[in-house]
Specification:
The protein is an alpha/beta fold. It has 3 domains: 3-158 and 338-351, 3-Layer(aba) Sandwich (Rossmann fold); 180-187 and 226-334, no CATH class; 363-450, Antifreeze-like/N-acetylneuraminic acid synthase C-terminal domain (Type Iii Antifreeze Protein Isoform Hplc 12). It is 36% helix and 18% strand. It contains 17 helices and 16 strands. The chain has helices at 3-12, 26-35, 51-60, 74-82, 92-96, 110-122, 132-149, 160-173, 199-203, 207-212, 217-224, 227-240, 259-262, 308-316, 342-351, 394-399, 435-447; strands at residues 17-22, 41-47, 68-70, 86-89, 102-105, 126-129, 153-155, 177-185, 277-282, 299-304, 327-332, 363-369, 378-380, 387-393, 409-413, 428-429. Helix 1 packs across helix 15 (342-351). It is globular.
Length: 453
């Protein structure tokens, strides 16, 4: 039965999915807009430190002022929901204790994201992780906790990793071999060193555009400097069992028509070290000119037709293939972030099924110095001034003691680290009492004996 039919049934019996959102940023704002008009869903509460911002998000999303209220306790939130109101709170812990079916974690911060996801699952709530940073850092630990509590922890549909996982599942279900999966992005090598001060000129946003929206320069810079691409491909690899290439992501400028001919193993005439991997393609050539038929906002899978029959069938249907006819591509030229998030919300609650979740620890995202770092420097996390994230194989990360990008916020550098060098745990003084740090170190120890070097 389709998700929309299930939602209609919930609407008909006045038992909507009760939803809590933590973080009123760009992604969740789009969902808040759609939740208002989707049958079978009730937005119960939003936790956001900036309550004025949260209210403006709701008003821009079309919620009438009389349907918005403020509250600082779970009982007030529950009472507000009974009266059909959306309750805004600065206390995420109180929202987590309210009567909800699912929490959408959309802060993008690993420490608070870990706490929110953990607490939600401990109290019997499903979790949709818009916060892919935390999923990349601790995915298997989150999956284990969800299993223990009988709930679902899911990647967020509308973001590229979940949709890529959907395409991978489709291809494997019809007997195809996944060769490569990934997405497109705007990329130039110098973007690795971009900072929140330079991000808008690289993105080409006007001051008018910036004034009209809810834009976080550090978050957007994490897209530009390669960190977000590494994090998202880490999530895909660990969900689908795809092994990163030893050199990480290449960001080659490749258009849609050329994907099946380029993103295949070197032994077959392509550029990949091996089949069954992830890669991000650039929408610009290195000289800045646009790639023809680029995939900047989209995603793809390249698969191999493993039988002669399948190859002939794809040919007869004019499928986009390489010259050999063995390798083919399926792509989606867009993703709509929070506008599509309701698919995850409905799936986890009504089907008990994630729209992608971590199953392996194959990939990791390591911290790399954006500049020469000196003793005493304070790291400022993904998209900041000090480090960017690079996709690596989990074995290299654990045995080389690399500092995960998801733990790179707030650490103090205790010895010099040269630009473009990996940071290790030994280079940084960390807050060992942080919950995310403890869970990550426990995960590393638990899996150390099973990780391939």
């Amino acid at each position: 039965m389709g998700l929309y039919t299930l939602l209609q049934q919930r609407e008909a019996i006045s038992k909507p999915i009760r939803i809590g959102v933590i973080g009123a940023g760009t992604f969740s704002s789009a969902f808040i807009t759609q939740a208002r008009i989707t049958p079978g869903m009730q937005l119960v509460g939003i936790a956001e430190l900036d309550l004025a911002k949260a209210k403006q998000v709701c008003i821009k999303a079309g919620w009438p002022e009389e349907a918005i209220a403020f509250g600082d306790s779970s009982s007030v939130i529950n009472d507000g929901a009974a009266g059909g109101k959306v309750i805004l709170t600065g206390n995420s812990d109180e929202l987590l204790q309210a009567e909800l079916d699912v929490i959408i974690e959309a802060t993008g911060v690993t420490e608070v994201g870990t706490h929110h996801a953990w607490t939600a699952m401990e109290t019997g709530k499903h979790v949709v992780m818009v916060n892919v940073e935390t999923e990349a850092l601790l995915g298997l630990a989150l999956k284990k906790k969800a299993s223990e509590k009988g709930v679902v922890c899911s990647l967020a549909y509308g973001d590229q990793p979940a949709i890529i996982c959907e395409l991978i599942d489709w291809a494997r279900t019809i007997g195809a071999e996944i060769v490569c999966a990934g997405k497109g992005t705007r990329y130039q090598p110098e973007y690795h060193y971009s900072t929140p001060d330079t991000v808008w000129e690289h993105f080409g946003f006007s001051q008018e555009q910036l004034a009209s929206g809810n834009y976080n320069p550090q978050m957007y810079n994490s897209f530009l400097d390669g960190t977000k691409s590494a994090i998202e491909m880490c999530a895909v690899a660990n969900a689908a069992g795809l092994v990163p290439q030893k050199n990480g992501l290449q960001f080659l400028p490749v258009g849609v028509d050329d994907l099946p001919g380029v993103l295949k193993p070197k032994t077959a005439g392509g550029i990949l070290e091996h089949s069954g991997t992830v890669e991000v393609v650039a929408s610009e050539n290195r000289d800045g000119t646009p790639v023809k038929n680029h995939l900047r906002w989209g995603l793809y899978i390249v698969f191999r037709a493993v039988t002669d029959y399948m190859q002939r069938f794809l040919s007869s249907h004019e499928f986009l293939r390489d010259a050999s006819g063995q390798y083919a591509v399926v792509y989606r030229p867009f993703h709509l972030t929070g506008l599509e998030l309701g698919v995850s919300v409905a799936s986890v609650v009504l089907r008990g099924e994630a729209t992608g979740s971590t199953n392996y620890f194959i990939a990791d995202v390591a911290s790399v110095a954006k500049k020469d770092l000196k003793s005493g420097d304070i790291l400022d996390g993904e998209g900041g001034y000090t480090v960017y994230g690079r996709l690596v194989q989990a074995g290299d990360s654990v045995f080389q003691n690399y500092l995960p990008a998801g733990l790179s916020r707030g650490g103090k550098v205790i010895r010099p680290v040269a630009k473009d060098s990996f940071l290790t745990y030994d280079d940084v003084e960390m807050d060992n009492e942080q919950f995310s740090f403890k869970v990550r170190r426990e995960l590393e120890e638990e899996l150390r004996g099973t990780i391939k070097r």
